[in-house]
Design brief:
- The chain is of the alpha+beta class.
- Helix content is about 60%, strand content about 20%.
- It contains 4 helices and 4 strands, in the order αβββααβα.
- It holds the Pfam family Integrase_H2C2.
Length: about 120
């Protein structure tokens, strides 16, 4: 009997459902740390909206890493490929940052070479 009750509690605890308000659809479930409160997240259907969300929550907040971005996005939004999309987004942004830093470093090195010349008078 205890096993059945434990299983039912687990099923109830992990219960998720969808509901709509106007044109918006929400994905709901209980918060892991609090079985009393329900976590409600907006379901995102379009890739353009995903890019907008990732730009706002990752790029505008100081380029935090994957884990921090997943936490922030997951608090408010849901779509089926959320984890893979965030990892891809953060890795592409990090790669661009490395490339731009390398270009800036090379540019500064060229400036130094032009500036640092000694002439005999």
């Amino acid at each position: 009997m205890k096993k059945i009750l434990k299983h039912l509690f687990t099923v109830f605890y992990n219960l998720i459902f969808l509901f709509s308000v106007g044109e918006y659809v929400y994905y709901c479930g209980f918060k892991k740390d609090d079985s009393e409160s329900i976590k409600r997240r907006l379901v995102v259907e379009h890739k353009e909206k995903v890019k907008e969300i990732l730009t706002d929550l990752h790029d505008m907040d100081g380029h935090k890493g994957t884990r921090c971005t997943q936490y922030k996005v997951g608090e408010k939004y849901y779509w089926p490929t959320i984890t893979a999309d965030i990892k891809d987004w953060v890795s592409r942004i990090s790669e661009r940052e490395r490339e731009s830093t390398l270009c800036l470093f090379k540019h500064k090195e060229k400036e130094k070479k032009l500036i640092v010349r000694r002439f005999m008078i």
